[in-house]
Amino acid sequence: MPVTKSLHFxxxxxxxxxxxxxxxxxxxxxGWNTADAGGPPGSYTLIKVADQAIGGALALTPDMCAAGARxxxxxxxxxxDVAAKLAELVAxxxxxxxxVQEIPGMIxxxxxxxxxxxxxxxYRGLVEGVTMPVLPQAAISGVGWHELHAGxxxxxxxxxxxxxxxxxxxxxxxxxxxxxxxWAAGGAALGGMMTKMPQTPAPFWLFYVNVDSAEAAIERVKxxxxxxxHGPTQVPGGSWIANCLDPEGAIxxxxxxxx
Length: 259
Description:
This protein is of the alpha/beta class and 259 residues long. The protein has an eight-stranded mixed sheet with strand order 3-4-5-2-6-9-8-7. It has an eight-stranded mixed sheet with strand order 12-13-14-11-15-18-17-16, with helices on one face. It has two domains: 2-131, Roll (2,3-Dihydroxybiphenyl 1,2-Dioxygenase, domain 1), CATH 3.10.180; 143-256, 2,3-Dihydroxybiphenyl 1,2-Dioxygenase, domain 1 (Roll). The protein has five helices and 18 strands.
């Protein structure tokens, strides 16, 4: 994997019980391409927008399920030094879910959680001299927004802003729900964070994929065996969003400039 020092999300990974069926669903919804990553057959599948890899998929093992893993998405944040950033995370109250590991010549990574339990991955690609290409934020079928549903939005902001240097963008008053704080990483806003709804069982990161039309994408989700749990809803700025579940119950979201 190419080197990345982005300090924001730049890779997205699906964990599924049945990877081929799960990827068939997402290919139908988003038009993604897939390719074997080149390891043992079926061990890891790349997810691509056109020819550019944006993430991957792997099968949940019995050991992972026994440890509480369920079908879902997890995001990778690129850092210059995984061990150093991991030490900062622990000092700030974060948790280590899987210590630093390395796939020789490919990637060094650690699976972690923030102090409130939302999981993500710290990583560094090991292919020197090649940097990770980045899709334009608005590219159709790419991930265009990263949203944290936190146990406490204000405390989460303190953690992430100190750990990664993220800066505040627009704050939206959501009334009784609290403030929706958008954040940036050296440029345009890349995501938001808020205190989760009471009915949400645990904090988590939600990733929004850009689509041409929210309603058209929702229909593709339903045809593929997924379900709509919220939306389509227009948000400040004019975009339309929807939250969905894939056929195995993994949550993901859609964002579009058109309903």
